[in-house]
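# nightly structure sweep
# worker-07 picked up a monomer target from the shared queue
# config: single-sequence mode, recycle default, output format = structure tokens
# input follows
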Amino acid sequence: MSCPQCVEGYVLPGQPTGTIQPEYQGAYFAPRPENGQKDVAVILLTDAFGLPLKNCKLMADKIAAQVGCDVWVPDLFQGPPILPLSAMSAMPDRADQRPTILEWVSFIFGNIFPALPRFIHNRGSVVDARIASLLALLKETKPYEKFGAVGYCFGGTAAIRLASTNLINSVVVCHPGAFSISAVQAMGVPSSWAWPEVDVAVSPQKILDTEAALASKKATNPSLEYESKEYPGTQHGFAARPNLKYPEIVEAYEKALEQTIFWFKKTLLG
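# output follows
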């Protein structure tokens, strides 16, 4: 980490209890409890900070313990993540925080432009192939019959695309990056959505259009259940990297994780 002070307040307390599995493409593995479900697994798709930010591992540990199934966190980027951890300090945390134009310009030139080669290297089609490859390997070597996927930010967009395949059975999408309504219309599994009050990546109208598309799909196919929750006072990123200085943001993070756990219990274990 090049700038430890830049991420203070964004790194969750505690140490991961799982392990990195080189034979599974470097994915992090959080095992189920001894009395857990052997035939169910969850894939956690990270934000642009990837595995170096330990939050995703801690969240995987908690999902594994409370859902009662194995959880895998793929190394989506197969190398350095798209954004360095220091970029977190440049992002707003609460809905009432509005960056100035100068702050946005500084963030874009300081973090986005330098990351463009990594964005290209990790474009959607490439990342989707990596996820599909890991799922194929897990299906070949593990007794899993059902998969859930939860994605955050960059991983949220990937989760939307993954939900249009036959590779998973349920999905949770938390403050995704850019996506199309046609991608939502192509989804074929039950879905749960967690939105911030203010999102630089998704407009309020886009959320309304998403909910309309989901309602339309459920009307023609009742098995495609969905839920959509907004967390007041939050900004993009709250469900994956809450600023611990703000109790209301931490509470929203905890509730979004509870939402994820409940959804997988309902759709994968029910």
